[in-house]
Amino acid sequence: MIALITILLLNLLLIAHELGHFLLAKLFNVKVTEFAVGFPPRLFSIKKGEVTYSLNLIPLGAYVNILDEENNPDERNFRNKLLWQKILILSGGVLTNILIALIIFIILFSVGIPRNILPENYHLLVINDNNIIRLNFINAIKETFAFLFFILEQTLRGLKIAFIKIFTSLDVSDLVGPVGIFAVTSKSFHHGVIFGLYILGAISYALAIFNILPIPAVDGGKIVLALIEKVLKKSINSKIINLIDNITLVFLLLLAILVTIKDVKFFYL
Fold first, then answer.
1. pTM of the entire structure?
2. CB 46 within 8 A of CB 37
3. Residue 240's pLDDT band (cuts 50, 70, 90)
4. Does 69 qualify as catalytic in the annotation?
5. Measured between alpha carbons, how far apart are the two ends of the chain, in Å?
6. Mean pLDDT across the stretch 178-205?
7. Does the structure show a pLDDT above 80 at 101?
8. DSSP bridge partners of 58
9. 113: β partners
10. How confident is the model over 236-258, as a mean pLDDT?
């Protein structure tokens, strides 16, 4: 039962990410053709207006298809939108995941979070010597922002070390993949709802951090591309973009395979 709940919650984080892109695309009048939950083959779909809403067989997140074509003068084409609008649309998923993390940690700091599940090197903004950290709403908001800034700093430092190890010795021991995330989240709910929500909030925030990194194939890389096109005052050939994205995806896939093998050995063997 806990395993099913874990799968559902992790998928909801991924669906919420794509929903962020979808809502901001609609807000800025970009043509959206499809919002799909899961990946093909398609099980069920319904068309409302110009958008096809699909439910697919493979339960791994979601995706959004928008009008994004070179040399298409349609004012609803993503490429014809203002730079700040493009950046907000591309950041929609990241902003949604950050919002989820904010809500979860504000709730946890308000209802009470055990001190021992917080990182040992994290120093509370609000002085509190109790084993259960329970703050009023305003202080819970302040503590949440301080905590997320701390997590951001620690994550970026960890990613730097992890990528150095990957490129120098193909060491993926510092990374956790889908199997590891599932195992950690599932086990965390065995220790109670508070600990489970804590891990879920951390994963949502980690998704946001990863997706805003300035590398191809993720949202951060697409934002960098939009900035480059603004400076060059022309669109970069889509074939070049697709080639770079495909190379990056192959690298990430190989990395995911290595990390998955490591996670299976660590968590299940």
1. 0.89
2. no
3. confident
4. no
5. 22
6. 79
7. yes
8. 39
9. 133
10. 81
- Report the alpha-carbon distance of residue 231 to residue 14 in Å, rounded: 32
Phi-psi region for residue 23, left (φ > 0), alpha (ψ -120 to 50) or beta?
alpha
With tokens 């060491």, the residue in question is: 171
14 near 60, Cβ under 8 Å? yes
Q: Tokens in use for 203?
A: 């994963």
Active-site hit among 18, 69, 70, 143: 18
Of residues 255, 191, 264, 152, the one with CA closest to residue 6:
191
Helices (H), the chain: 2-27, 83-90, 92-111, 137-169, 178-190, 193-211, 219-232, 238-268
Amino acid at 197: L
Are 205 and 148 in contact by the 8 Å Cβ rule? The answer is: yes
State the residue for tokens 């021992």. Answer: 116
Between CA 175 and CA 266 the distance in angstroms is 12
pLDDT digits (tens, 9 = 90+) for 133-155: 999 999 999 999 999 999 999 88
Which region holds residue 242: left if phi is over 0, alpha if psi is between -120 and 50, else beta?
Answer: alpha
